[in-house]
Specification:
The structure is a homodimer. By secondary structure, the first copy, chain A, is an alpha+beta fold. Chain A contains three helices and eleven strands; from the N terminus they run H-H-H-E-E-E-E-E-E-E-E-E-E-E. In chain A, helix 1 packs across helix 3 and helix 2 packs across helix 3. The radius of gyration of chain A is 25 Å and the shape is elongated.
Amino acid sequence: MRTSNFTPDLTDNQRKVLDFIQRFIAIYTVPPKLQEVAEGIGISSRGVAHRYVQALVEAGYIETDSGKHRGIRLLKSNPYRPESRLPLLGEIAAGKPIEAIPGQDEIDLSEFFGHNNFAVQVKGDSMIDAGILDGDTVIIEFRETADDGDIVVALIDENETTLKRFKRSQRGKYIKLIPENSEMEPMVYEAERVRIQGVLIGQLRKY
Amino acid sequence: MRTSNFTPDLTDNQRKVLDFIQRFIAIYTVPPKLQEVAEGIGISSRGVAHRYVQALVEAGYIETDSGKHRGIRLLKSNPYRPESRLPLLGEIAAGKPIEAIPGQDEIDLSEFFGHNNFAVQVKGDSMIDAGILDGDTVIIEFRETADDGDIVVALIDENETTLKRFKRSQRGKYIKLIPENSEMEPMVYEAERVRIQGVLIGQLRKY
DNA sequence: TTGCTTGTTCTCATAATGTTCTCATTATAG
DNA sequence: CTATAATGAGAACATTATGAGAACAAGCAA
């Protein structure tokens, strides 16, 4: 519970409130309202929460937009920034223990969270040979164009949506949508019938 | 890019509306009308929906083609989405356009970033039937015990590390490490020779 | 065109939130 | 012990945010 900030000018509870506000913002991206602050530190009075918040204002840790809902602003940077990186420990199944390779590298998932991205849950086995199983979640970048070989979310006849590998015919008149499953056949459509909704940029699965 | 030092320029419901509009466009490819916005956030008044939409216009998030039906255009996406969550659009590949999953409209990846987790890059095809391909990244929770059926990172003879499905023999004297690849055979070791380093909790792939 | 739908502008109410108090209780220093 | 600071509850009030719906204008389709 010890943090790097040593703040002797705050009481324990004021410290607790500041801590809560920082964590709240990290999680929800918006500051808490007084009711939430109160609950966050285990009391029931908005008035008391307000008193703590004012103390933090006077101590110079935060500002408030007086009257506005969720009007708290942090003045110093938030130590609880959400993490989107993980230590990457090296390749597995090689001859050495994992521990022998200290975390010198990390993997950054922030590109998964871009503004035009969304996640879709996959139903069915049509992409099983590409390692995309029924129930997996795929991450799609919202785009209207794709390159040959991309895996795309395609809308057919403004009606049916599928995840397939994309290929254009030589003159661009037809579009071939190729399942990655040896038991299924590629489908060919006139280009006008197919609209790209997005391109696969990632895939993930929770166990 | 989102920092912590700001007061939200949108109220809770205004954010909800922005979120709804983005999701609506992703699903139906056209912007919603006010009636749909109203229903989308659980109110019945077109007038109120209009007020929210106007607030978003003034905040610079959207534009409207004044008077036109479905005249909303997105300008910038909302910065209020935490970097560990993605909008989740529902299941793909069924016969219909993507539908939202009721009750669950985003996926949260924050559990991937726990302190005891690390990422490992997979080498080889031994888990290919489980949809884990060569080059994939798996997310491991650092643990020393596992249950039967878990996929684990196991260290054999303090020397060799592999990713396999874990199974204990009835008396616990032996441990079977099962590859998910029909061309490979399970391996059996005396329990002392195998040490669990972690358990698979997630898997991801970048394209 | 006609008739219906949709967007826009209002007013009126109500709920939710921030703010300021008073009063009581607990912890702590001296 | 007493004095003081810190804490908690909650009432009362002001302001902000929200919701319903009427009335009218503008778009849209048959």
